[in-house]
Amino acid sequence: MGLHVSHDCWTGAYSAFSRWRNKIAEVTGYGLMDPTPEEQAEGHYGKYPALEWSGIEERNFFGEWDRTPPDPLVVLFAHSDCEGVIKPAQAEPLLKRLEQILPLMPDEPAPGHIGNWREKTQTFIDGLREAVALDEEVQFA
């Protein structure tokens, strides 16, 4: 079991995907935040990217955006880690943004089933690029 993101973007543990997104948040200056007591009561325990969450709608978690956020990384940070899509309209700006930050990702092994931080990021970029070329949604399952 685990997360599968189509176009070979990602296959692996949900926890590894969260750690990878958190690393992106750290290297891009977003930082991380702890779950609130209310979130902990709902079963959420891990840190997550420090966004202005009040501006994120529930439908955004599943890939429904009226327009891509000014920083396309928000699409990745806000996305559910177990279902939904990234549409081509968001995938293309996201892959370009990930290419920009790729040199910031450590070129070293990451803990817990991620592999190399930078290589894993490149794999996600390559999958997004394939989906955009085919005009297909990236599926999370």
Describe this structure in words.
With 141 residues, the protein is of the alpha+beta class. It has one domain (3-140). It is 40% helix and 14% strand. The chain has five helices and eight strands; from the N terminus they run ββαβαβαβαββαβ. It has a two-stranded antiparallel sheet with strand order 1-2. The chain has a two-stranded antiparallel sheet with strand order 3-4. Strands 5-8 form a two-stranded antiparallel ribbon. A hairpin with a 4-residue loop joins strand 1 and strand 2 (10-12). Helix 4 (88-101) runs antiparallel to helix 5. The longest helix is centred in the C-terminal third of the chain and has 18 residues, at 117-134. It is globular, with a radius of gyration of 14 Å. It starts with a strand and ends with a strand. 29% of the residues are buried.
Summarize this structure as a short list of keywords or feature phrases.
two-stranded antiparallel ribbon, single chain, alpha+beta, about 140 residues, 5 helices, 8 strands
